[in-house]
Every structure is written in structure tokens, then in C-alpha cells.
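Checklist before submission:
- one chain only
- standard amino acids only
- sequence pasted in full

Submission:
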Amino acid sequence: MNRKIRVLHVVGIAVAAQLLVGCAGSPAPASEPTPTATPTSTSSAVSAAESCDQFGDVETTLHNARTSFREGRTSQQEYSGATRLAARILSRIPSESGTDVGDALTALQSVAPAAAVGVVKTSFDPDGPEWSAAVDEFTAACKTEGAEVAVSAWTGG
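Returned file contents:
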């Protein structure tokens, strides 16, 4: 029963994260890995606030998955799956290339490259120094633009 609750918890995190970010088209087939992510430019300018707000969804997913794992409510496999999901969400965040926010987002995406759904690979380390430095650079760029990265914590106490 405890295992079932843990699986439902991780699935809930994944579903909530996807609902927050939205699904952009259909995912690539499992046999074709998604190339390393780069910021998506659109025909209309993407505001720094939009990119920073969407990155908050990545951090929310990671925060809640990390908390659940550290408290022993999810397994290593479930935590790794959540980090892979966070990398896919990150790869879908649009930004304006050539801006501080866009450049910082590119750095984040290179630290946490996305894999296609169903492709299991080593996930990035969201507690590692490379990720932390890239997050610091991104949040500083957001702050400079007057935008914030907000994290919603619903796991833990």
C-alpha cells in the first residue's frame, strides 16, 4: 500500500507540472532521443517574465520531488524520473535569444538536457554545483528584468 501511495504521489507531481507548463504538441517517439534543448524563439517576442515564470514550474517540480525523496516517500527511481520530467519541461520554455534571460536559459538547458519520453538516461543532479550556478545566473537575469522565479511547495511540512 505504501508503494502505491508513493507512485501516486510522483504521478501527481508529474501531472501537476505538465498542467502548469502545458503540453506542447505530441512528444517525440521513444526511439528518437530529443536533441539537446535550446531556447525556442517564436515569431513574437517572449517576455522575460514568461520565461522566468515557467522556470518556476521546473523548480517547483524539483523542490517537491526532492523533498519527497529525502523524506523517504519516493524511491531513487521515482526521483530520477521527476528530474527527467523537469528537464523536459525546461526544454519547452521559450525565451528571446540574445537576451540575458535567454542566454541564462540556454546554460540551464545545457546542464539538464531533455530526453524523449520513455528514454531512460542518467538524470542531471539538481543539487550539483553546475545546476546551482546556472540557476543562480538565471534567477539573477530574471531579477534584473524585474521578473521573479516562484516555487510552490506542497510536499513536506
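Reviewer check: DSSP finds five helices and no strands in the chain.
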